[in-house]
Every structure is written in structure tokens, then in C-alpha cells.
Design brief:
Strand content of chain B: under 5%
Number of helices of chain B: 18
Number of strands of chain B: 0
Structural class of chain B: mainly alpha
Structural class of chain A: alpha+beta
Largest sheet of chain B: none
Radius of gyration of chain A: 24 Å
Number of domains of chain A: 2
Shape of chain A: elongated
Oligomer: heterodimer
Number of strands of chain A: 4
Order of helices and strands of chain A: EHEHHHEHE
Strand order of the largest sheet of chain A: 2-3-1-4
Helix content of chain B: over 70%
Strand content of chain A: 5-15%
Chain lengths: 186, 404
Amino acid sequence: MALLVPELPKGPHYGILAEFATPADLYHACQRVRDAGFTRWDAHSPFPVHGLETAMGLRRSPLPWIVLGMGLTGAALGFVLQWWVHASAQPLVISGKPYFAWPAMIPVTFELGVLFAALGAVFGMLALNRLPMHNHPLFRSKVFERVTDDAFFISIESWDPRFDPSATGKLLESLGARSVELLESE
Amino acid sequence: MTPERDHVALRPEQATIPPGHAWNRIPVIAAVFALVGIAASAILGTANPKQFFFSWLVSFLFFLSLALGALFFVLIQYAAQGGWGIVLRRIGETTFAMLPVMAVLFLPLLLGLHDLYEWSHAEAVAEDPLLQWKAPYLNVPFFLIRAALFFTIWSFIAVLYYRGSRGQDATGDPGISARLRRFAGPAIIVLALTQTFASVDWIMSLTPHWYSTMFGVYFFAGSFVGFIALLSVVAAAMRRAGLLDTVISPEHLHDVGKLLFAFTVFWTYIAFSQFFLIWYANLPEETTWYRARMEGSWMTVSLFLMAGHFAAPFFYLMGRTVKRNGATLAVGGAWLLAMHYLDLYWQVMPTLHPEGLRVSVLDVAAFVAVGGCFVAAASWLMRRQALVPLRDPRLAESLAFENA
């Protein structure tokens, strides 16, 4: 299962982890990292920071299209299933309605549309985030444990074309990082 | 006064219609339309009073529902202490300030009660056990008392909130927001009840043998879609006309678009649920209303409503870009306003024309008359006031609003 394993770097380092004291520091550092042209990097925060996706220059997620596609598929499936059962495979008169009584089919059509859209949203999100992921090189950092508490981080991965162990570290320090850590690769 | 109270996030000249602006001419233009509409209605209506009263009822209900939707929009924002929509609130306040005007526009219908409502005929009631049974509610004196009560309550809430908000422009007193917030919860309950009974009185009792317990919600759903559609058109038009173009941002349009999308689905949910239960149970006393709308050209209108009031706007308004652009959002809003009118037309007119859709020139005349009065009065108010609540405590929050 390729999805379950993080893409591990080939070089001696996983990447660089920089800690910031406040969401504002993180926000401004993200803008600079984005403007420096990095592409393989991420920001980590205990809570959502408004506008961070713009500061990071993230593209819009394709998830809405997955949800739309799944929703339409579910609705079509629900409708066709009922049409096939009631009007084609096993026609039965139910409470004096025609075989193809389309209003009676709307609730199930709607529910299956919602169900498929919801499943598409959850599993599409997991797949796009490469989750579940049972371990991650960032977890080797001791300071990173505070990412769910009170610390804000930027991690830049070593296979970013612009990555350079010393220059990238200096850049992050110049952006006000409280600590900068070079993470080893296994 | 503390310095915070004096803080004004916007200068008044940023939020008023400047002298010489084209929008200053709207009241006069709309008043001319109103006069033409009233004259045409009067001349054509004397030849065909029955058609006149039904046409007037549809147009009256259309603009009334916009004002009631606006009242609900503002009340829920007070009740929930909403911040994002403060810059749009004055558009809502101006719209519901038309409720006393709608009371005046209701008066012509009083002349036509016998043309509109079968239960108002004593001889019809005398032959009909069901109408006799309903007579303690459906009789002319009680109908008039209820109508007076509805307009008194609506006008009271409307004037209270309109004057409160305008008063805050002058004094900057944040206590006004707190007082109006405390009153908002009970006001929503009163609004829901009066709006429900008004829809029963004015629309449902057109077919007095029929009843639907969902009808009040159905009318509410349509009225809220109608107002949000109007809001999207007015907000986009204001930005294009250079009014509030630095105040109302794509972020606000985006949220209006989301509400429009959501309540289009809500309207569909209610409309379908009402139809579905009646269709499935198939009880004669309930199916008559839908049967009239599933025959001949009324069936075409029914199908067109499904496509035009649900399917088309559902897919059109789904995307993010459409909602964040004033022009595309306004197209969706204008379309849904037309669909809301058609929805009311479809509810009222089969009583007059059971044989099928018969569009009359009086429909147009009544729409121009009622709409002309509505737009003239609303745009006249807009000239005399700031276009946003200048000293609302949450104005700064609204100005800086961003969708996540």
C-alpha cells in the first residue's frame, strides 16, 4: 500500500524543522518561505491559523471535485437501482403507484448521494493527505512534541530543489525561528 | 463618552450615496413606474376585477415575502451575534422597513375578498359542511383582525430595529445592539408564527378545502431565498455603481452566495417534502391542490420550477468562483428572484385559472405598481441614511471578515 508509507528522502537528511513562538511569526515566515520558491515544505500549528493557506501559497484542493463526482455517482446509483428493481426486474404494484414512481425514489436517491459524497470527502481527504501514516520522520524531533500544545513549526524537506542544509537553516533563523533543527534520515 | 465609543471604522462619506450619483434618481424613476402600474391596473382592472385581485395578490406576496425574509435575516444576525454581515445589514433593514408600506399595498385586496376567497361567500359556506366547520377561523371579520394584527406586529418589529440601528449611527451607543439582541429571540418566534398564519390566510385559504401543515415553512423558505437573492443583486449592483465598493468585499459576496445556495436546497427540501407526503398518502382532501398543478400547462410550470428553482441554481451556485464574483452572483440572484415570483404565481393562480397558465397584462401592471412603490420607498430611504450601520460595535469585524 503505497499510501500508507511516507515518501522518504534519499539523502542523509529528512529536512529542516524550525520552531516559531507565535502564529504571527509562523504566518510571516510562511510568506517568506513561499516567496523563496520552496515547494516541498509544510507548516504545523496546534490550531488553524486564518489565511495560512494563502501565506503558504497552497493550491486549491481537488477534494471538492472528488466530492461532487462521488455525490453524483451515489445519486445516479440510488436512482438506477430503484428504477431497475421496481420498474424493470420485479415490477410490483405498491400502494396503487405506477411501477416507475419517481417521487418515491427521491429520498433514497438523495440519501445515497449524500452518503457517497460524505465517503468521498472523508476518504478523499485521507488519500490526498496520505493518511493513515503510522510514523513520520518529524516525530524524531523532541521539540516537535509541542506541536499539539503551544509551538508553531515550519518543516522543509530535503528533496525540495532549493534545499541546502546550511543555507535553508540560515534562512529560517533569519525569519525569527526560535530553534532550527536538522533532522537525520534513517 | 469613551474613545472606543467614538471610534468610527468608516467615514460617513464612504458609506452614503454621494450627491449627483445616478442612484439618487432611482426613487423618482421607480415612482413613475409605480404611477404607470397603478394607472394601468386601475384601468384594466375595472374590466376584469377578478384577474386584477389575483395579479395584485401575487405581486403583493412577492414583495411582502422579501421584506419578511429581510426581517428574519437581520433578527438571526442579532440573535447569533453575527459579525460578518454587519456591512450588509442596512440593505436588510431598508428592505424590512417596507413592511408598513406593504400594509398600505394590502388595502386594495380588501375590496376583492369575495373575488379571491370562496369562504367569504355566505351562500357557499351555507352549502358546504367543511367550510361551515372552518368558519370560526375563516370568516371576514376575523380575517381582517388577523391581517391588522400581522401588520401591526411586523411594523412594530421593523420600526424598532430600523430606528435602533439608525439611532446607533447617531449616538454610537453599543447598548442598543445589546437591547436589540435580547429582543431578537422572542421576535423570531413571533415572526415565525405570524408569517405562518399569514401564509395560511392569504395563500392556503384560496383553496379552503385543502390544507397542508407545512405550508408556513414553505412560505418562509421561499421568502428567505427571495431576500437573499435580492441581497446578492443589490450588493453586487452597489459595488458596480461605486457604492460601498471598498466596504463589501468578495468575502461578503461569498457568504451571501453560500446562504443563497443553502436556502435554495432548503426550499427544495420543504417543497418536495410537502408534495411527497401528500402524493404518497394519496388522501383526496390533500391531493386536490397538487392535482390542479399536475394537469395541462400547470404541470409544465411545476416541472419548470423543479428545474429552475432547484436544479439550475444548485449546480450554478455550487462553485466558489461564481459566488465571489459580483456579476455572476447577481445573475444567480436575479434568476432566483424570478423563480420566487413564479413559485408564488404557481401557488395562487391555479385557483383563478384551473384550466391552465393564462398570463395577463394585469400581472405585469400589478408587478410594476407594487414593485414601483416598494423600490421607490426603499431607495428614498437609502438616500437619507448611511448604507452601513456606521457605529455598530462589530463593524470593524465585518470589514475585516475573511472566509476560512
